[in-house]
Design goal:
Length: 224
């Protein structure tokens, strides 16, 4: 999908140059798709869907306020969807979004220039982000969503093996509850492993085993 090369005017100014939308579908897929100069890339609402081999890039001039070339890269609202083997070669206001009660989704084996893992409130919970290169690492926890819609991330959101060009930190208190799990982030911070509180297990990403928690759990379930 290639859209006209026009400057991005900023948040909520989009004309709808969006590539793919799934709405209330089950067991569908997007495979080996390249998207260029989009306002937004994918909106996936459904269950058991797979997005694999996605590349998003842009030659547009970014907006002045946020230095972004579009609004949403990939948005997941549903349950048990898989986004894997992705490459986001530009910067959206929200690169990867989970929102609207979505749970059980896996974001795995991907990279971005400067990823923002947007948890857009509305009680998203139990989503897994694993084996991800966040690029510059300047805005990993930058999120949207109305301030009256609860914390950004719900219970048991899990972040496993997240790397970046700079040290990362535990998200701010406004991001989510202490029941989140953070293991193997690129960081210089001190860890905290309290079974009844904050779980921030500091392990250098290159020493973490398994590197991809989703694939390890899948292999165990399949008896491989």
């Amino acid at each position: 999908f290639e859209f006209p090369k026009t400057p991005y005017e900023g948040h909520f100014t989009e004309l709808g140059r969006n590539a793919i939308r799934f709405r209330k579908v089950v067991d569908c897929w997007v495979r080996d798709v390249r998207i260029i100069n989009a306002d937004s890339g994918l909106f996936i609402r459904g269950t058991f869907n797979t997005i694999k081999g996605l590349v998003i890039e842009s030659d547009r001039e970014p907006d002045e306020d946020r230095n972004s070339t579009g609004h949403h890269g990939v948005t997941l609202t549903g349950a048990d969807n898989l986004l894997t083997d992705f490459d986001i070669r530009t910067r959206f206001i929200h690169d990867i979004t989970v929102s609207h009660h979505t749970s059980g989704n896996v974001i795995s084996d991907g990279r971005g220039d400067d990823l923002a893992l947007d948890h857009h409130r509305y009680a998203n919970f139990e989503n897994l982000f694993t084996n991800i290169d966040a690029g510059k690492g300047t805005r990993l926890w930058r999120c949207g969503g109305g301030s009256g819609l609860g914390k950004h991330c719900g219970a048991r959101g899990t972040f496993w093996n997240i790397r970046a060009d700079r040290p990362l930190h535990y998200p701010p208190d406004s991001f989510g509850p202490v029941s989140m799990n953070l293991v193997g982030l690129e960081t210089h911070a001190q860890g905290t492993t309290d079974p009844d509180g904050k779980w921030f297990e500091v392990i250098p990403p290159e020493k973490l085993a398994p590197q991809n928690l989703y694939r390890a759990q899948l292999q165990r379930r399949l008896g491989e």
